[in-house]
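The material for today's practical consists of a large collection of protein records. Read left to right, the backbone structure tokens trace the chain's path through space. An example says more than a description, so a record of this kind follows:
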Amino acid sequence: MSEETAAEAPSILIVDDEAHLRETVRDFLEFHGYRVDVARSGEQALRKLEKAVPDLVILDISMPGIGGMGFLQRVQDHDVSAPPILVLTA
């Protein structure tokens, strides 16, 4: 994939505390042409949303810290620009 094509690809943020799951989903999505970023926690994901808004967030609900539900609440409460959010939990 050329750099121009990669820059035009939809971006996805994966938020999950389990490294093996983040990397598995990331590898799958990148193989299919998506640009992927990852966050280990809801807090880290919120910081990333302040800098850039992806086209989709894939969110685990059960995580330490604020967790997925806390992330959703803070996005709603702070009127943070947010893309569609897909909840994926094992």
